[in-house]
Each structure stands twice: as structure tokens, then as C-alpha cells.
Specification:
- There is one protein chain.
- By secondary structure, this protein is an alpha/beta fold.
- It folds into two domains: 23-140, no CATH class; 143-180.
- 28% of the residues lie in helices and 33% in strands.
- It is built from two helices and 19 strands.
- The chain is flat.
């Protein structure tokens, strides 16, 4: 019994010694506090909730922002993703892979390069002709999202008005509501 426990402890110690350390110290993750990557500095990933990211240096991993803005004056080696905010890339900024924006605006400067795809879902894109995108440019305007909602609202309004008109007719015919 003791030999089994000793063997399990030795195996556990071997696994613990072989484990690779995490590199989370190079990531920038913030809630309600802006992230700034100064010129000449790098971070691996930049993740921000309810705040903004300003990059003048380099982001070697991914940049993800929820309910905030992205301002890129340097380089992002992988993806830049923004939900409900604005993405601004200064002149000659570089995005290594994809640029994705949901319910926001993309404004790109002169000679900005996007390595793979640029996607703007339910937002607006302002990009000069000098912007290079490696693969696809997809822009789905907000009106495509808003159109079905307006149509649904009109249908609901017509139904509610028809029900109210029927109740008014019954009230005038019977003199009192039928449920009273």
C-alpha cells in the first residue's frame, strides 16, 4: 500500500516538474480600464471588457475588445476583434490575420494592410483604396439587421391595433366589456 502511494507521488512529482509554465504575464487583460501598448513595447494578447485598447507598439497575439474602441497605430500580428465599438487603424498600420467588427465602425488610414479577411457585421467601413486585404472584404450594413426588426414591429403593431379595434367594437355593441 505504501509502495503504491510512493509510486503515485513520484509520478505526480515527475508531471509537475515536466509542466511548462504559462506566459500570462505578457497578456494584457482589463475590465473598465484602458490598455495602452507604448511604442517599442509588445504584449501577447490584449483583451478588454468595457474599455479601449490603444496600440502604438505591437500585439503578437490577438486583440479582442467588448464595448470599447480599438486604436491601432502599430502592428497586430494576429486577429483584431471588436464588439460594439469603433476600430481605427492609423496610416501604415498592420493587422496580420483578420479584422472583425460587430455592431461598430471600421475606419482605416492610408496603406493599412489586413493579412486575411476584413469583416464588418452590422456596421460601417471607411477605407481608402490604398488599404490591402489579403482575402475577403465582407460588410453587412446595419440596415440588413434593422430591416427585419422594423418589419416585425409593423406586423406586431397591426395585430395590436386589430385586437384593440375589435375590443372597441364589442364595447360599443354590448355597452360593457364582455369579461365584466
Amino acid at each position: 500500500m505504501i509502495r503504491r502511494i510512493l509510486a503515485l507521488c513520484m509520478i505526480g512529482a515527475a508531471f509537475a516538474a515536466a509542466a511548462t509554465p504559462a506566459h500570462a504575464d505578457r497578456d494584457a487583460v482589463q475590465f473598465f480600464s484602458d490598455i495602452r501598448v507604448a511604442p517599442g513595447t509588445t504584449v501577447h494578447d490584449a483583451v478588454c471588457f468595457f474599455c479601449s485598447v490603444k496600440v502604438e507598439g505591437e500585439v503578437r497575439g490577438n486583440m479582442v475588445v467588448f464595448f470599447g474602441n480599438v486604436h491601432l497605430a502599430g502592428k497586430a500580428d494576429n486577429d483584431v476583434v471588436n464588439f460594439f465599438g469603433k476600430v481605427t487603424a492609423e496610416d501604415k498600420a498592420q493587422i496580420g490575420n483578420n479584422l472583425v467588427s460587430f455592431f461598430g465602425m471600421i475606419r482605416l488610414g492610408e496603406d493599412v494592410s489586413v493579412g486575411r479577411d476584413m469583416v464588418a457585421m452590422f456596421g460601417v467601413v471607411h477605407a481608402p483604396e490604398s488599404v490591402t486585404v489579403g482575402n475577403n472584404r465582407v460588410a453587412m450594413p446595419f440596415l440588413i439587421f434593422l430591416g427585419p426588426l422594423v418589419l416585425l414591429g409593423l406586423v406586431v403593431t397591426v395585430i395590436v391595433q386589430a385586437v384593440r379595434a375589435g375590443r372597441r367594437r364589442r364595447l360599443l355593441h354590448y355597452g360593457a366589456p364582455p369579461w365584466a
